[in-house]
Write a sequence for this structure.
C-alpha cells in the first residue's frame, strides 16, 4: 500500500505536534546558520500537518526563510513580499510561541525590512548578511 501523500495527511493532535517539535527547532537552527532552503524544507513537512492556529506560525517562519532564499537569488520584490507575509503571520502570536522570542524576531524582521527598503532595489545586495534576523528560542 502506498504512503498517504503528505498534502492529504491528517492534522496532528496537539500531543503529536509536541512530539514533533524537534523538527521545528532543527529548522530554526538551520535558519540561524544561514541554511534557508534547508530550513524551509525541514519545516514544510511539519507545517502541512499542523492544525490552526499553530500552522500559521510555522508558515510565517517558512516565509521568513523563503525571503532570504529570494535575497540569495537577487530578487528584491520577492524578499520584501515574503518579509511582509512573515510579519503579518508572526504578529498574530504572543511574545513567546513554542519557546520562540516572537517579539524580538518581529523587531529583527522589521529592522531588516527597513534597511533593505532604505537601500532600494539597486543597492539591497550591499546589505550585510551579518545583520540577519535570528530565531531565538528556548526548548
Amino acid at each position: 500500500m502506498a504512503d498517504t501523500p503528505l498534502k492529504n495527511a491528517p492534522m496532528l493532535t496537539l500531543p503529536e505536534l509536541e512530539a514533533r517539535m524537534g523538527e521545528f527547532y532543527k529548522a530554526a537552527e538551520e535558519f540561524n546558520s544561514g541554511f534557508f532552503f534547508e530550513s524551509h524544507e525541514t519545516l514544510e513537512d511539519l507545517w502541512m500537518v499542523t492544525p490552526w492556529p499553530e500552522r500559521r506560525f510555522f508558515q510565517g517562519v517558512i516565509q521568513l526563510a523563503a525571503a532570504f532564499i529570494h535575497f540569495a537569488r537577487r530578487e528584491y520584490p520577492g524578499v520584501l513580499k515574503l518579509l511582509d507575509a512573515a510579519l503579518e503571520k508572526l504578529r498574530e502570536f504572543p511574545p513567546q510561541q513554542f519557546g520562540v522570542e516572537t517579539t524580538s524576531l518581529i523587531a529583527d524582521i522589521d529592522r531588516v525590512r527597513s534597511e533593505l527598503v532604505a537601500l532600494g532595489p539597486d543597492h539591497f545586495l550591499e546589505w550585510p548578511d551579518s545583520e540577519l534576523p535570528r530565531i531565538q528560542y528556548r526548548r
Residues 109 and 133 are 6 Å apart (CA to CA). The radius of gyration is 15 Å. The beta strands are 96-97, 100-101.
